Fold these 2 entries.
Entry 1:
Amino acid sequence: MTAQTDTTGSVTTVYQVSGMSCGHCEGAVSSEISEIPGVSSVKAVAATGEVTVVSEAALDEAAVRAAVDEAGFELADRA
């Protein structure tokens, strides 16, 4: 997981999610994470397992982990 704050004050965080293999997987993960308060955009890429999340502030990792679990996938541990 990496996080970066931009000049507008939003935070972009890249998470590693294991188990995604198709567009449906990407949609399921994106949909669940989008429901976390403060999230403004989510882009999941099954080929790399990366999920890029833009939010108003840093997100609680437990909330992200729960959303990914709800979608049926696993948030990888930090490197």
Entry 2:
Amino acid sequence: MTADAVLPGLDDIRPQLEDFYKDLHAHPELGLAEHRTSARVAERLREWGYEVTDGVGGTGVVGVLGNGDGPTVLLRADMDALPVKEETGLPYASAVTVTDDGGHRRPVMHACGHDVHVACLLGFARLMARAKDAWHGTLIPLFQPSEENAAGAGAMVDDGLTDMIPRPDVAFAQHVLPYPAGYVGVRPGPFLSAADNLRVTLYGRGGHGSMPQATVDPVVMAAVCVLRLQTVVSRELAATTPAVVTVGSVQAGASPNVIPDSAVLLINVRTYDDATRKHVLDAIERCVKGEATASNAPREPRIEHLAGFPPTVNDDAVTRRLARAFADRFGDDFHTIDLQTASEDFSEIPDAFGTPFAYWGIGGIDPGAYAQAAARGSVQQDVPVNHSSTFAPVIQPTLDTGVTALAVAALEWLGASVR
């Protein structure tokens, strides 16, 4: 059974779905604080007949809808927003602020499109509950907290997710990206990079700025490390092996004539496979320790791993099957997407079950505006990207595309037995 048996109901629910999206966009919540969002999601799933467990991993929500014998399919949407001040000018723009641990007010915005993901998965879940004659099996819509902090997927797993729901035969997730709305793109193998955040503390011996001979200057040590780390990718990896090493912060000292005792580097690493990831992380450790030794530092640097995202690597067989179904449905709007340098923790959920998965992207940019930017050669400058204060997916056809993509993917498995 194709998605055609389910999607005609989209015309009926579109106005309510668009209203839900606008409300969600206007009321963003940070990771593990998605209380309003999760409550609204859980309420609707229960109303439509799903068996719902909420509070999973803090604020996660998972629904289960059984419909006879057949495969079990899990689909995930992330719910959290970002500490960004919205500057889109939309009539439903966020004006939300929260108080951080330091007592400061911080603006909050759905700057990464997670509101799109929630709305699309919820709309799809409603359509499937209304068209149970079109499919057989078990449907599991899962709404995950705190993706931005790489905490939510692991929190749900640690909270016993694998014992709460049936083991999925396949799992899916999608993300809105800065491509034209209507675009759908997937690729086998690596899709999103692994990400690792490191804090490196370099130790010197402080003293008077006029007497550097009596010190071990950690500022100079840090500067040399920054330059040295640029060679890890350019000189230790093949040109065909993608990776990024970024030193995003260098902090040392507070006075022009005082050489400090230490300097701190904050480093971000992006890689696409475990072997490259290990090589790059080992190289960073080797480089900073080597430069500390060369500087005659009084002690070894301290290297802390602050956070990490696993690589998102699509299952080849699942992705090939999915790509055929997407090509049939979307035609020229379906593409093999390029590698994406962003990162995500979704894979921790299917990995906990030993379940194969596929992850894809949908476009969210006004097609006309995108085409004009492409004609000017200014896409990079003129098209807002995720995490930008001006990132604002157009409501349509973005929502219709997201709901349709979820239906095509799920029914490729759940609809097979009723064809």
